[in-house]
Amino acid sequence: MQRTLTVQVADRRWKLTVHSRRAHVTRIVTVSSRRLRIRLQVTGGSVSLLRVAAKKRPQPSAPVSPPAPAPASSPVEAPAPTQAPAAPQIQLPSITLNVSTTPPAIVEPAFSRLVWADEFDGKRGSAPDPARWTHDVGGHGWGNAELQSYTASTSNASLDGSGNLQITARRERVVGADGFTRDWSSSRLTTKGRAAFAQGRLEIRAKMATGQGFVSQLWMMGDNVWDVGWPLCGEIDLTEILGSDTNTTYGTLHGPMADGTTPYATGHGKQLGVPADQAFHVFGVSWNADKVTWSVDGVPYAQETRASLPAGAQWAYAHPLYLLLDLAVGGTFAGTPTQATPSSANLVIDWVRVYG
Ligand SMILES: [Ca+2]
Q: What domains are defined for the chain?
């Protein structure tokens, strides 16, 4: 996390030292004309107070004049004749800087009782458990100009025999049952008609696809979508991770404005540190009638409440929502695959757990 301070000073010959109560602050100082710009890299925790002290550098070209002899009455000993005079110092005003890697205001509702799960144990190549999962199929673009046709084939979604579900996008021509011809196949699994949850905590341990044009999506949609449509049904995106930037997870709410038809989206990005295609992360979202909280690896990073929504936005998340897991290709969010895009990519899910 970086923060920038700008301090006005008399000229550019100031050497800065940054004092902090916490040791994990480093600084990069650039001086331009009469301004000092200080960039702080905070690696963890929070910094409540910084004191910036400035010390004027002696001008290299300035002649060093011999010190004046001290008055006889002075208690201060005059410097030795061979010593340069001490550089003048100033003290800049204290600066309070609140920097926190975890916003302190986030309090998550407690949901600790496991109410639903799939650990994806099973034989390599077998289909996801039909008692838990159903397939959305077709290639009509899914409201987002996406390029894949979702299939129900184990070529696009199967267990890997090591305890994971693997969703695979492939560059191959597919004519879907809906008549659309697409150059990519993939899979979208849902719990529609199997399970939906009015509140709770959803956690998914997963490793995401990499490559321009892919987007790994773990999300929820209001179970009433077939009755009231989108966006009135409400949508909570646990995580969306672009194959072109696997270091950033996005948690987003999609719901209706006051008219019930105009959609809004309010989202939060979070840097993962270790990119999601290189290691598993646990993505979490908890929700109740008033609050949605997103977390990564057990650490909350963002929250929305009824009060935090844009003016006129409806809260559309206080009814049962079902789960969706998919790996989409192309579309308005992910952008088009390029020649460099691999011909296949995997979204690997170790487990899905819901606590109530
Ligand atoms: Ca597993």
A: 2-62+77-100 (no CATH), 114-355 (2.60.120.200)
